[in-house]
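Hello again,

I reread your note about wanting to compare the complex against the isolated chains. To keep things tidy I'm splitting this into two emails, and this first one only covers the full assembly. Below are the input lines as submitted, including protein chains and any nucleic acid or small-molecule components. They are followed by the predicted structure of everything together. The single-chain runs will come separately.
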Amino acid sequence: MTGNEERLTRSFYERDPLMVTKELLGRYIVRETGRGKIVGKIVETEAYIGPDDKGSHTFNNKKTKRTRVQYQERGLAYVFSIYGKNFCFCIVVGKDHEPAAALIRAVEPITGIELMKKNRTIKTGKIKDLTNGPSKFCQAFNITAKDYGIDLCGDDSLYLTKGEPADETSISRSPRINIDYAEEWKDKKWRFYITGNKFVSK
DNA sequence: CGACCGATCCTC
DNA sequence: AGGATCGGTCGT
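Full-complex prediction:
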């Protein structure tokens, strides 16, 4: 495996949410399984920043069973279900205990491609389709509700490493996807991706 | 307790 | 372009 294998520490996540979300690009996310290791390079992220952001689940400091982890320690996993069968994976980020999350929208498969194929329901031969969307990535890495709230700085089965941080010059940004309800907040360019990387979602 | 709906995926 | 699908959320 290429890339720096040191873990990202909690202090990495305890900073400005937009900065952290951008600097997640190029980092590696690792899932240890009984059958081996699954590794992906993060190539697309989005920032959701309560309490002002109408696109965020924590808009207006909304506290529910689902969002409670966003008010806890930085570096925890915020996993939620969407459209019945699908999950999305975020990392709790930001200063103090202000609610904010960085959504992982796509990764580039690095290690364990056969395991990813096995985990995905769709059996396409194309590597590109394994992880190029937030819920496709969760499927490939077997991330489900059971992973809600786990500490990515301390857990042995799911964590992030320093990897190959993306150059500032290779990063693009755009409005976030599928938040038409967010009114004036939907146009904020809080989606970050590695320019030209073919594993970015469509 | 019931109604609504989504940080999406997949097939048509 | 449209259907699937179900837990979280909220109003009653």
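For quick reference: DSSP finds four helices and nine strands in chain A.

B.
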